[in-house]
Amino acid sequence: LPSSRVPDSAAVAAETISPGSRRRRPFTTRLLHTSVPYLLILPVAAVILAVLGYPLYKLVTLSFQQYGLPELIQRKGVWIGLDNYASALRDSVFWDTLLRTLLFTIANVGLTIVLGTLIALLLVQVSTFVRVLLTAGLVLVWATPVVVAVQVWYWMTNFQNGVLNHILTQLQLGDFFQHDWYATTFSKLSMVTLLIVWGAIPFVTITVYAGLAQVPRELVEAAEIDGASPLRVFRDVTFPILKPILLILTSLSIIWDFGVFAQPYLLIGASHVDASNYLMGVYVFIEGYSHSDFGRGAAISLLMLLMVAAMSVFYVRRMVRTEGVS
Amino acid sequence: VTAVTPAAPAAPAPAVIAPRAAVARRQGRRRVTGIGWNAVGLVVFAIIVFPVFWMISTAFKPDIEINSFTPTWVSSSPTLDHFRDAIDPDLHPGFWDGVKNSLIIVGLTVVLSMVLAFVAAVALAKYRFTGRKVFVALMIGILMLPQAGLIIPLFVVLARYGLTDQQDPLPTGALVGVVVTYMTFLLPFAVWTLRGFILGVPRELEEAAMVDGSSRLGAFVRILLPLVAPGLVATSVFVFITAWNEYIFANVILSDQSNHTLTIWLSYFAGTSRNTDWGGLMAASTLTAIPVVVFFLLVQRKIAFGLTAGSVKG
After folding, report:
1. Which of B1, B2, B4 would you mutate first to test chain A, the one with the most A CBs within 10 A?
2. From CA B267, how far away is CA B245, in angstroms rounded?
3. Are the Cβ atoms of B3 and A277 closer than 8 angstroms?
4. In angstroms, how far is CA B238 from the centroid of its own chain?
5. Mutation test of the interface with chain B: which of A5, A22, A126, A279, choosing the one with the most B Cβ atoms within 10 A?
6. What is the pLDDT of residues A174-203, one digit of tens each?
7. For B193-217, what is each residue's pLDDT tens digit?
8. Which DSSP state fits B9?
9. pTM for the full predicted model
């Protein structure tokens, strides 16, 4: 009697344990059983296919068309072959923006991972009270909406009476009275970097801190008794255990920072973003959407998506592999 | 014209590593260094929460303190004027419309996404089937797509079917457009997270119920659902927060001011005038952030590790 219940209960996984009982069931029941998971994922797959799959297909076709506002109204573009790509790739703005975005990404990811990891290591050293306080602060920052953070940053770095200028002057770091942080491209993007790194540190710190809990205490103590310096302990004991986590965090950060849009667009300001300070996300938005040149914008978007897809391969493969294990 | 130098990350490292080395040299004085680390911890705390503190502090300050060249840290005569101004329909129209639009859009997104995502998550957690890996890769891949890169085709497609505020919109078309867009980008996240919660329920519990005579569906409803409920709540809250904070799609699809969400309302709050109403802006920012922060604090621990699943045993 129990044997007839087992296959019903634990789905396909259990069926492989008792293959004998599967053969006894009629064909139609088996067909129904195998189709169940497909029916369950069908709604999600359908929404994604319609709202993402179709636009992705449109992205490819748009990139080969002259498609501006008139074409949008007539709902029909003019086929122009590779002209959009040629025009984008021949434009020095494209290459400048790409290079700027790569350097921006390296700086942002580097700062985020290094500072995030250092704060996680600090969390291990401090008393329970300071740890709880610091963690609460990190979660508060994490919870702050991006658009809100932008407004606060905009206010703090304002040249007239922003508090940043006041604090820097008070700390005797120089005369920052009415210093304009948005005067040069480098300075503008540094402010964007500060904002992004500030917002991204909590996720990194809290994840790395969770990873530090996996470092066996005996191993660290043994190394210390053997006379290893803290730096050596970190390099040879802690770091190898943290490495998979840091790899995941780094690849996620690269993907996020390369495609960032809201922070630079809003902090620099819609009326001040231009070819001199574009990042890829802002660039496709302005050139494609704001200028209503959807065809050329689609070509640049597609190039950008392909770059991000290449960067994502590592992360996605890793996640799919761990999925199979668990 | 290159903008950013990658040299910056190295700068803060030596300062912190040096005291670490000192710890080893003076093992006997652990208590002293303990105090040192706590002091560093407090300084880091102060720097990290300062922007949030400054937002709230400014929101309660009278204008005379805000516009002074020497800032006051905490107002000596706190006022609620800026909050009153920020939501005043004549001074800054659109706050209540924003709240209403945000609640409708976010509410619909949460309910629809959660139902569809839960069903798909059950399939991923409970069944092995051909194409499963492809589906998982698709889910994670979508999470990685930069939204700025998709705005053009999404806008063109949605505009063509009257689902934006531009180009002959259908009645409530933009609303539908923004909800389906949010669903597309939040479904993968919700499926992935819920799958983890379902896997967390011991299979034996369900099997025990069925041995006791329940049907598969009965066991599902009476055993699995209550046990997954906290995960469902946590995931819905996270979907809520992400949709509430979303900027780029809402800004493009809901170009009509009466359809703006609260986030879009805030992004236009400062306006283009030379003299920004900083007190009002900070009060508006505080109001926009409050629901998100409260909800986030409730669920952060449950959600934090979804994206690094497998590498961290959270």
Report:
1. B4
2. 11
3. yes
4. 6
5. A126
6. 888 888 999 999 999 999 999 999 999 999
7. 899 888 888 877 777 777 777 777 7
8. G
9. 0.85
